[in-house]
Amino acid sequence: MLLQHTALYLLARGLPGVINFAAIAVYTRLLSPMDYGRYSLVLAGVGLCNLVFFQWLRVSLLRFLPAHVENPRELLSAILSGFSAVGLFVGFMGPLLAWLWPDLTWRGLIGLAVPLLWAEAWFELNLELARSKLQPLRYGLMSGLKAASSLGLGALLVLSGLRTYGPLTGLLLGALLAGVGLSWPEWKGVRPLASSRLLPGLLRYGLPLTTTFALGFVISTSDRFIIAWFLGEGPAGVYAAGYDLGQQPLILLMTVVNLAAYPLAVRALEHRGTEAAQAQVRKNATLLLAVAVPGAVGLAVLAPNIAGVLLGAGFREEGALILPWVAFAILMSGVRAYHFDLAFQLGRRTIGQVWVVGPAAALNFVLNLWWIPSLGILGAVYATAAAYLVALGLSAGLGRKVFVMRFPYAEAAKIMLATGIMAGALWPTLTYRGALPLAEQVFLGCLVYGIAALVLNVGGGRAQLLSLLRRVRA
Description:
This protein is mainly α. The protein is 84% helix and 0% strand.
């Protein structure tokens, strides 16, 4: 079921992921570094507020819906109550902040950020609802509609002269189309309640995770604001483009696995006990590493050609420099978030994650203040990599005291060997430049890694392939 659901989520997230990846190439060509910098800063601010105000609802829905699957209306009513209350608070504070902000350009951007935050939060809540119900096709339809409409409308609005407002308005309209247009049947008959007996439990579970995710977001995005403060909005845009170029494909690969894997682990724990859940998370970790490690190494090895093909002229040089470090940092972050951190969630002691991400966020902030003025945007990515490495170590150590996560050491060694073989095969091609050579490099890397992984029987893949071939012949 893990491979089946992962394949479905790969289809569900693959096209939206490609579209979101293409958005980097489009917007770094249509926008100046300063406009792209403002766009990335608004996205970072909306993303942080989304985590701080709404993430507790999403993680609670994902964790507790399996226990209410026969009668979900009470839980959904509690979720809707929390969303409505927080949405009203945001609706009051956002315009107040815009009115108080001294810069006229940023007043308008903050005003646009408020409805964008509402729309993004509702869209992501409904994605988690589809995920918890094990509905990858609906998940994919929502994700695809949002990604395609956001990019198409955003690009048209930029070409019409809206500059920074163009892609942000496109995101707002795309989130509304997908989040409202495709989700209303799920909420039919659900009403927010003035009080709910479930809300205190959702808060106790979700708020520590909200703090954790917010601190994690500080690690990944606070550097953009510090760069803008010290170096200007243009360098912040250059850094954001290079960072997103490395982050998006790796996060896509790891998220696809986690989308399928985590609900299976929760259901195993709820219905079959701790040992079944531990066996499931070990399988999940093998698949996570099998896609993330070669992806990170491929990005690092092919960084100059990837940046040259996908980024606009004003973004390429710095993008190629930071891309390998971004790949390393995101790999560390993903292994922590999608494997070791799950110990706190499965063990229902989510406050432990604060002690993992809190020190790492503090370290990241201090290193950014130290290194960005002297090293420029490279200092920011060094700080991010160091913080994620510290967080990974803390999560692995502290999480064992809550819920033992079985790590597949033997399978990890096979994956590292297969990835090394892939890197060796790519080495003679590193001087190649251009879109067609990049496609050939990606194909070669995937082919060599796939063959090596089958020969080494990573995760029992060779046995599963032979079994599938026998069934096809029969």
